[in-house]
Inverse folding.
């Protein structure tokens, strides 16, 4: 018989991201000592071939404002520039997950990129499990190759898989509706 972990299952069954705009402005964020166990837990993702096809960049303070400046500079219009800047002007801590596939014929690139995305989700869950608010809020700038290169030194084969913002939740917001199993699951038994 399998060994159940009811607390973990209860957490996953009710988990949710907390919007970065709901974080307490000026509220505490995990310091390095608190963040390292979160990052360690987040790194426990499928990684076929043990390639570590990702890298992490922890961002605080001026480093975040710099990202906002870069986004504003690349914005096509004033609204887009403002939206790109706002993501980084209102957060105190973020972790960028860079998808960095390795040349390995036995492990397809798509699986390596999926590992980076799984790391983003694990990071949200690990931060939330430690009592912090967290959300995977990447925004349009991260998909702009010039921005990614200037912000994180991304090479042409690297991509920003996600940016996870972590902070203190100021107030709980209502949960969003969740998918109906009958609409999204198909059972095949024969």
């Amino acid at each position: 018989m399998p060994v159940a972990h009811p607390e973990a299952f209860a957490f996953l069954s009710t988990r949710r991201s907390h919007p970065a705009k709901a974080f307490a402005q000026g509220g505490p964020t995990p310091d390095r000592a608190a963040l390292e166990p979160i990052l360690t837990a987040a790194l426990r993702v499928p990684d076929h071939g043990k390639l570590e096809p990702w890298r992490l960049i922890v961002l605080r303070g001026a480093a975040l404002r710099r990202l906002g400046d870069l986004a504003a500079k690349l914005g096509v219009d004033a609204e887009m520039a403002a939206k790109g800047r706002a993501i980084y002007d209102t957060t105190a801590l973020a972790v960028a997950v860079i998808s960095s596939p390795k040349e390995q014929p036995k492990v397809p690139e798509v699986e390596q990129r999926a590992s980076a995305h799984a790391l983003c989700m694990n990071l949200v869950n690990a931060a939330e499990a430690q009592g912090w608010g967290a959300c995977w809020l990447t925004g349009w700038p991260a998909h702009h190759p010039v921005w990614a290169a200037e912000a994180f030194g991304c090479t042409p084969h690297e991509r920003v898989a996600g940016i996870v913002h972590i902070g203190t939740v100021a107030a709980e917001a209502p949960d969003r509706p969740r998918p109906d199993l009958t609409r999204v699951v198909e059972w095949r038994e024969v």
Summary: The chain has a mean pLDDT of 93. Residues 20-171 form a domain with the NADH Oxidase fold (CATH 3.40.109.10). The longest strand covers residues 159-167. The helical segments are 6-14, 32-42, 61-74, 78-89, 109-129, 145-152, 181-184.
